[in-house]
Design goal:
The two termini are 29 Å apart. A hairpin with a 2-residue loop joins strand 12 (365-367) and strand 13 (370-371). The protein has one domain (8-401): Alpha/alpha barrel (Glycosyltransferase). The protein is mainly alpha-helical. Helix 1 (8-27) packs antiparallel against helix 13. A three-stranded antiparallel sheet has the order 11-12-13, with no helix packed on it. A two-stranded antiparallel ribbon has the order 1-2. The longest helix is centred in the first third of the chain and has 23 residues, at 85-107. It is built from 13 helices and 13 strands.
Length: 407
Amino acid sequence: MNNFDFSLVDARARYVQANAATLRWMLARPRLAGAFLNTKVNSLNLADYGDADGVRGPAYLYGWIQGRGLEAVATHAEFFEREEPDLAAELDAAGVALYHSLRDLQRRDGHGYFCYDRDLNPVYVGADGALHQQSAAGGVFTYSDAFFAKGLIAGAARYAPADVPQHLTYLAEVIDAIENRRFQMDERRHLSPHAASDEPEDFGPRMILLGAAGLLHRIGRSEHSAFADRFIAHVLERHFDPESGLLRNVPGTDVCNVGHAIEFVGFALDHLQGSAEPALVQRLQSVLSSSFIRGFVGPGLCLSVSAATGAPLSPYYPWWSLPETIRSAALCFAATGNGEILSIWEQADRAFFTHYWRGSVAYQTLTSNGPFDFVPATPDLDPGYHTGLSLLAAINMIDQPKEPSMH
């Protein structure tokens, strides 16, 4: 596709079409347990997973996916009210049911879990390959809590405004857990305070929860977003490597998840809403540029690279980091008008729609040899979260009236 001519008008139309196609595909599928989203499809052959597929199959519900899905459904419903009201109405019907089911699940003991069995009991597959009952989380919080909290806030803001305060309290509990070493990243083992405090200090939890800040601004709850400034400062102070311009996953170690670094930049700029100090914007722009330049060495962005050498450390090129690059580059371009950032946006757009996109879903992972069946976190396909919300952020940026001084 050497004749791929990038224009923001064309990109906007393509993003709206892609998001609508994903959402229609998802809405047409039978729900899990009556209300939960069902994206249980093999990304290579698009065949439905069945019970024979074990924990990939319909008997297992992934809390991560449902929390992400609720945020995506509620957010897209608001957008499509203007563009395609019939689609918005369908999204709202699904969103209301999903909201109440997810809220009830979280209310049982104040937590969301990574995986549930058919009876909605928390379970996990351990390193031994066996299925285990998950321990009660208690004072430990996880990525699943982060995704539940964001989803429930987005859902309540649209479907049950009186519930918003309780979900803001839940979000505050997740933030407190991150800042006090009670956040456990590895949900494929028993949850415990010891396991949480023993984990390496990866910037992942702060990065994921930073995504709540932009959401809070959009629903008129900016007064709850102060944590985001602390998170941004913490990540840049402790994880930024000035030699390479990359974010180290863990301070003092060599591995850099460039997709997570780019996602961090997008969430940070979404929170800062154009009001950031120029020096901070420049630092974020440099993380985006360095991460993309060093990671974009195959069909997409390599899963991880070396801070010391810049060399790829993984054979895998996941889909999600390209739409995240589109979001980050769009917001960064809005803040700076930098032509190099527009070029990054164009490259990410071209790579995603050329190599990954299949009309309504994407290949989850490519290697240099083509599509590969690699499941980094959950086997369900993306419910409009990484792809949809990232592209939607770019759409909203394109739609904003431009300041004449931007360029």
